[in-house]
UniProtKB/TrEMBL annotation:
InterPro entries: MFS (IPR011701), MFS_dom (IPR020846), MFS_trans_sf (IPR036259)
Transmembrane segments: 12-36, 56-75, 82-98, 110-130, 142-164, 170-195, 216-239, 286-304, 310-333, 345-367, 373-395
Keywords: Membrane, Transmembrane, Transmembrane helix
Lipid bilayer topology: Multi-pass membrane protein
Keyword Glycoprotein annotated: no
GO molecular function list: carboxylic acid transmembrane transporter activity
Compartments (UniProt record): Membrane
Record domain Major facilitator superfamily (MFS) profile: where: 13-409
Pfam families in the cross-refs: MFS_1
GO cellular component, one term: plasma membrane
Entries under SUPFAM superfamilies matching the protein: MFS general substrate transporter
Protein name: MFS transporter
Amino acid sequence: MDQRDLKQLFSIPVIVAALGYFVDIYDLLLFSIVRIPSLTSMGVATPADLQTQGEYLISFQMAGLLTGGIIWGIMGDKRGRLSVLFGSILLYSLANIANGFATNVEQYRWLRFIAGIGLAGELGAGVTLVSETLPTHLRGYGTTIIASVGLMGAVVGNFLSKAFAWQTSFFIGGAMGLLLLIARVSVFESGIFLKTKTMQIQRGNFWQLFTNRSRFLKYMGCIFIGLPIWFAIGILITFSPEFARTLGIEGTISAGDAVMYSYIGLAVGDMASGSISQWVGSRKKIVMVFILLTLAFFCLYLFMPVHTTTFFYFTCFLLGVGIGYWALFVTIAAEQFGTNLRSTVATTVPNFIRGTVIPLAMIFNYLRGQVGPIHGALIIGVTTIIIAFIALGAIDETFGRDMNFEEID
């Protein structure tokens, strides 16, 4: 990679998108990290209630992500990628500052929903912008940088949550987002989008994804290849203290530490999967390998042979490595579709996957009462792997694809 490539790779759009995703992940995972102390301060006392209310609140946050994914995705294709970066950052920053003032579960619930709407726009808009501004041979590296830097937001969130009260952690997240708006001023709009804007063509028509069979199958394929990722994060990692008690882990497991170690693993996995896909010249082959790794680490997590806190956190790290095809997953979504639908797809796809935590949590809650939490999680985990493999067959290999094209019926 020569000096010119490095200059493009570490350009302002890439840096701002990476920092934006950093703040996004910090705010998105902060609830999982401070779930127990924040709910306890609001009068939720018993372990059963903490899990039930936690499942309820995370479902509200994910519902916000689903709603926001559609809103920001359509806006990104109609108004431009930069308008989404500005609007989403502003909304989730203000919502998280307000979250620090929440005094009861009802307020908490609605503020997580509003924050979820805001958080939905950052990743899709950033990946779309970077994918359209970088040359083809650097595109995979660019999105890998975004994901790797961004995922460290979970690590910082965990450290800050230990140093400050949970309310202050929310204030810090909101303040970081507002500071990011200053950096966003220096980012320029995608030239590919500006060209499409002058054309007499439909932009951001969400329903266009459902009017063509091939396009619909690709869209659903893009969504479901990521299903194991958010089962791991939304169920196994978020409720790691409860799983640890069931597994008989010696010592106390912190949800914040489990999130931190899993996201360190996720960053390692993203760097590895993104780099290897560039060397191999294939997105799909590498995704397949990482889905298989995820299956192996699901089983290790649920049936771990060593019951120490160190091994439990190591397993969380490995689980993160296995699901570390997140950057590839979003890149594939952006590369599948034309400029007039690219933001809609790249923004809705990751948020629809995040939103699957809602039905997954409901199914897990049912299976937990029927076959126990371990076997219930195993059934869901294996099912998500099977669905991901089927979905992988529905999408195109997009490595090296020219991004300057449109979707026309």
